[in-house]
Structure formats: structure tokens, C-alpha cells
Amino acid sequence: MSKWKGKKVLIVGLGKTGQAAIRYFATQGAKIFATDTKSKAELTEPLRVLGNIKVEYDLGRHTPKFFTSADCIVLSPGVSSNIEPLHEARAKGVPITNDIELAFPYMKAPIIAVTGTNGKTTTATLISEILKNDGKKVFLGGNIGVSALEYVLSGVTADVIVLELSSFQLELLHKFKPKVSVFTNLEPDHLDRYPEGVEKYYEAKKRLLHNADKSMTLVTNLDNPLAAQLGVKFPGTVYSYTKKSPMSVNPAQAEKFRGAYLSKPNMVLKMNKEEAFDLIQCKLPGDHNKENLMAASIAAWNVGCSRAGIQKTIEGFKGVTHRLEFVRKKDGVTFYNDSKATNVSSVIRSINSFNGPIILIAGGRDKDQDFAPLVEHVRKRVKNLILAGEAKEKINRVIGDYSETFLVGTLEEGILIAYQKSRSGDVILLSPGCASYDMFKSYEERGDYFKRLVAQL
Q1: Which CATH class is domain 8-97?
Q2: Domain spanning 101-316: which CATH class is it, in words?
Q3: pLDDT over threshold 90, residue 194
Q4: Would the CATH topology of 101-316 be identical to that of 325-455?
Q5: Closest CA to 405 of 388, 391, 430
Q6: Pick the CATH number of 325-455 from 3.40.50.300, 3.90.190.20, 2.40.50.180, 3.40.50.1370
Q7: What is the pLDDT of residue 190?
Q8: Average pLDDT, the chain
Q9: 80, 216, 252, 260: least buried by Cβ within 10 Å?
């Protein structure tokens, strides 16, 4: 009999994670309650999908009594763990968990967990593609838009489970223990969710290593100081990757180096022996994507992937939707959708992925970021700067003097100005550096809208 039978479980948030949690607890015989600050009218589609399941809803608000009277609370990653009803629930001793922790006991296959500030989605997707190209059955989920509970609900057994994990998901992990942990980088982000400061954000990320022991493997970025530091005291096996020669990074440790590095035009994997992989056919723009590829190759190799699976992915993988996604070329002008770039460091990586003049479309909802690191990159690389959304005035004050800048009311207006200002050889790049919630429901909706508008030019 399920331990949840007859228990009162509160699901907070009715996005994809919340919906999967409701479906899971329905199979467990739990008494299901669900709450969301959105109104019934705003939640038409989730309510339609969940229509056959008995749920007591509290919509348009979070009523404290639902939290304090629950036997367990399941928090969606889009909901802050600092909301007042959760504080009241903690004071009453109500356990708070999430879909990752609930799904973990069912995951008997090796787990590769990917986190970091930027590059998580591309790296997790690359790992999945490498393993699939090697003939393995893979479940890809987590922050990538598929709840970990979907693995449980599907009843399908995978050879390898790949999970992209955000800081919001990692905050609530206690028993979770992956075989391979990947850190792409650690840089400031989500300071709106961590008002105490960036260290709280980093602490949440590092919870991925909460249960680290000798049996576990860490893959980390040697070119990112904070990520590289994680390997110093890690009790298990550490693999690193770098865009440079290991000899130039740390001559004293070069012989002991295990992982991957770039030796153009190749990527070299140095595990038991050195193997070179030809990158000439790689379709991913930017050196940051070479970092993602190295991280993914090391992780896949650690769960038994062959050389063929890696090389096939290098030659065939075209990237992730909304992440430096090629949209079209018109009159010599190339359009890229980078709607997933929601922080400053991500925009810098995107700008540095191109050689030609850039017309940058940025802005949205600020996450209490410092936009000053963009100054030098905009000054050197950005021909025109087009700003939209709630943060446009703040961004303009910091970087508006370093390029010909236009403040616009809508994305559509921004695209039209960008196209008018463009010349053959230019790149028009949507790389917002901000969250989408001021004008769109998600970065996906923002990117799709951009693509539709560009297609209509």
C-alpha cells in the first residue's frame, strides 16, 4: 500500500511540474489539494488536462490554512520558497518537497544531473543526444520542461536518466544522489529570488553535491573559477574541461589532468587515453557551446558511451530551441533567437559567438542584475541596441551610451527598427538578458513570437 494513501498533499503551482505531481498522487490514493496565484480563467488548459482527477483547488491566491493543514507540500520550481504561507507551514513542521525528490526512489538507472548558471539545457540535451546516438534509451527531464515524475508515470525503464536542475529545484533536495554531477559554470543570476545575495544562489547550486561520496563523479569547468573550485574537496572522481591546453592552465597538474580540452580543430578527451574528435562539422556557434560539448562528452563517456555516439552528435546536433537558434537569413541579414538568455553572462556569451556587426534586442523583467559587465562587449561588438520591457530604462542608463540605442514599446516595433537599421552581413540577435514575465508567459513564448515576426518580414 502506498505511504501516501489518504494523506493530504498540497501541490503549489499548476505548471507542468504541478500537473505531473497531481497525476502521480492520484495513482497513490492521496487527498490532493492544489493552489496557484493565477485565476481559474488563466488556468483553463491545466484544469482541462486535470479534469478527471479529484482535486480541491485554491486559485487566485495562496490561503495559509491549506499549507499549515497539509501532510506534505510539493513545491513547483516557479514558486519562491520564501512565500509567507511556506514559512507558516515550516513552523508547523510540514515537510516541503519537489518532483525530483519524489521521483528519485524510482530511478534505478544511472542519473546524470546537470546544473550551472548558463549552458544547462544545451549540455543536458547534448548528453541525451550522444547517448541516443549510441543506442541507449534515455529519459531527459527536470528544468528542461519535463517533470521528473513523468519518468515514474510513463512506466518505461531508461538506460540512463539525464536531469537538468535549476537552483530552485536543488534547494529542496535531501536524498537525491546522481552518479554524475555536471557544473557548467557559476555566475550571478536570480538575485530577485535570492535577496540575501549571490552566495545564497551559489549555496543552492552546490546542494547537488550534498550527498557526494567516493562513488560519485563530478564534471566541472576549469575555465570558470567558482565551478573549478568545486573539484578541490570533492570526495569522488573529478573530470575537468577547458578551452585551453591543460599545460597552460596548470602545468603542475597537466599530467594528472582527466577530462576534455580544445586543440583546434579538435576536441580531445583524455580519459584512460587521449582521443581526438573532429569539430570541423560542428554546427553550434560560439566557444561556450564547445564547453557544453566537452562537458556532455565527459558525462556520456562516464556511463559507457562509445566514440561513435560522440562524433555522430558533434556532426548532427544543431542546437536547442531558443538558444542561439538560427531563424532565417534575409537580404544578407541573419536573425538569431536567443530568448533563453535571461542573464547578463549569457548575453555576453551570445555576443561573442559572432564576428560580424550585431544589432542586439534586449530587455524584459529585471532579476536585480548588474548590467555593467555588458559595457565593453556592447561598445566593441553591438552596432545598434534595441531595448524593450520593464528593464529598458535601467539597461539604457548603464549601456545605452555605448551604441546607437532605441527604446521601444513592443518586440514587434523593436524588430522593425532592427531590420531598418541592418545592412548585409549584420546579425540581428534577440538575447534579452532578462526574464520574460513582463510581456510573455515564458521565454519560449517570447522566442516563438520573435520567430513569427521575423518570418513575416
Answers
A1: alpha beta
A2: alpha beta
A3: no
A4: no
A5: 388
A6: 3.90.190.20
A7: 83
A8: 95
A9: 252
Side chain identity at residue 2, one-letter code: S
**pTM for the whole structure:** 0.90
- In degrees and rounded to multiples of 5, residue 278 shows phi and psi of -75, 125
Where does the pLDDT of residue 45 fall: very low under 50, low under 70, confident under 90, or very high at 90 and above?
very high
Model confidence pLDDT, tens digit, residues 300-337: 999 999 999 999 999 999 989 999 999 999 999 999 99
For the chain, the structural domain boundaries read 8-97, 101-316, 325-455
C-alpha to C-alpha distance for 301 and 174, rounded to whole angstroms: 27
